[in-house]
Write a structure and sequence with these properties.
- The structure holds 2 protein chains of 2 kinds.
- Chain A is built from 10 helices and 11 strands.
- By secondary structure, chain A is an alpha/beta fold.
- Chain A has a single domain, classed as Rossmann fold.
- In chain A, the strands form 3 sheets. A 6-stranded mixed β-sheet of chain A has the order 5-6-7-3-8-9, sandwiched between helices. In chain A, strands 2-1-4 form a 3-stranded antiparallel β-sheet, covered by helices on one side.
- Chain A starts with a strand and ends with a strand.
- Chain B is mainly alpha-helical.
- Chain B is 77% helix and 0% strand.
- Chain B has 15 helices and no strands.
- In chain B, helix 3 packs antiparallel against helix 11.
- The longest helix of chain B has 36 residues.
- The N and C termini of chain B lie close together (7 Å).
- Classes of the chains: A alpha/beta, B mainly alpha.
Amino acid sequence: MKVSNLLKKYDGKAVVDSVSFEIPKGKVISLIGPNGAGKSTVMGMISRLIAKDAGMIDFDSKDISKWKSRELAKRLAILTQQNNVQMKLTVRELVAFGRFPYTGSHPTQADQKIIDQAIAYMELGEFEDRFIDELSGGQRQRAYIAMVIAQDTEYILLDEPTNNLDIYHATNMMKIVRRLCDELGKTVILVLHEINYAAFYSDYICAFKDGRIAKFGPVSEVMTKETLSEIYKVDFEILQVEGKPLTIYY
Amino acid sequence: MTGKLYEKSWFSTAVLGVLLSIMSAASLFVGVMDLTPADIFRGDTEKLWLLLVSRLPRLLAILCTGMGMSVAGLIMQQLCMNKFVSPTTGATISCSKFGILMALLFMQSSTLWSRAAFSFVFALLGTWLFVWFIQRIQFKDTVMVPLVGIMFSNIVNGVTSYFAYRFEMTQALSSWETGHFSMVLRGRYEIVYLALPLIVLAFIFSNHFNIVGMGKDFSQNLGVNYKFVLFLGLSIAAAITASIVVVVGSISYIGLIIPNIVAMFKGDKIRGTLVDTALLGALFVLVCDVIARVVIAPYELPIELIVGIIGSVLFIGILFRRLRHGRKAIRAIAKKGGEAA
């Protein structure tokens, strides 16, 4: 997937301007940056939740806007926080929706098997008949991930997956992201606020500032004192933990 | 586990089906004119005539009304992501009545079909306006949505009354003000049958409605066209409502309480609840109608009165349950259900 010269304007003001980068396959890529830097907007445009004003998102040598919705849903999944959490669906019913782009309202035996596997992979077996509104935030998040696994896409986009989760669940979430990439071979793109999670669990980081890309590259290249101080306007210290750069800011 | 749950889900449907059949058969023999099963078996032509011209049409109209209104409510609640939205609280019924008035005003010789068409168009426009409004203004408190709907609906009712008064149509319109089945006779009610194919259509698209009910992003992720499904669902709900209102008049509460009661026990997956919702809706209207026929026999009360009394009590119950216990109360029921399974 290749993004070139992306532009988005709100009220005549460009919130995303000439953003270009190529998404490496089979890696975890984190989009970071201060509030309003445009990272969520870029994510929205990649997933077509937000219409782009100019630029090109090349997905399998075809612009993403030219894809049929249902075909795209088999290749690229997006999970945002804007889901109706009051809906009383069981975990299994939710996960089963992941097969909707393939077989619609008539899931086959093969679909059932994939649904079983997705539930087992997220260790939700004992909850599969529980309603999602009875689950804890972490469990519900896992149920949504199971749905995306059942959706069986090459690309998974996650908009702030650690939001509203405590340290334990947020860390588990990041480990799941890593497994999606390492074990299932997915390309995972996520918007993150926690830069240490981004540093520790991703392969590439794309740092945004004022609607433009400030720095894009492997984690070690982006996680430097100079780059981060420049983006966030606070002082940083970089530590090495398990061979990965982690930051302290104050 | 899944197998058992599956069995259990069919159990409630079967119970409702049996209850409804018994009540339906019994209701045929309730009324001013004496009619007993023995009369039918004896082949009394006069009694048979009564059965075919009055009692049976009335029963069928009741079943269609109960099923239709509760399914319309179910669809609206899902699509608007709000448990308190229904044809009553979403202004569909009042706009539908306004449409009937317009038909009476502008077409001197309006037929049942042309009134239904007007009714449908206005019901659709009104529902759309309401949904557009509540999507524009994101209310934090879910109870605000039906309150806005009730206000909107009162405004429409006010305008309707004004025009009816101005053009001396109040009397003609009064037949639709309070719903009743006493005018249901062969040849002048068949349009309510429209509810049935529409319910089938709703069943076919039930998964789409569920997905759209999960939100715009969720729909987009699964490749479901949010706006199209929203439009389709609201059109189905408006068409069902219009076809019922034009025959029976306004009947409130059914679309509001029936889907809520079923959802408390069976969740929100429409594929699993639609049939139960339709059956319970039909049963509820049938019971109310029998009460309406029996209470002051040989006279009868408009069913809207009975539905209003029972419905408002149930509605207040649901409201308190949702407000006071929030999700906890519903969780308790679900847990009980889970253990039973």
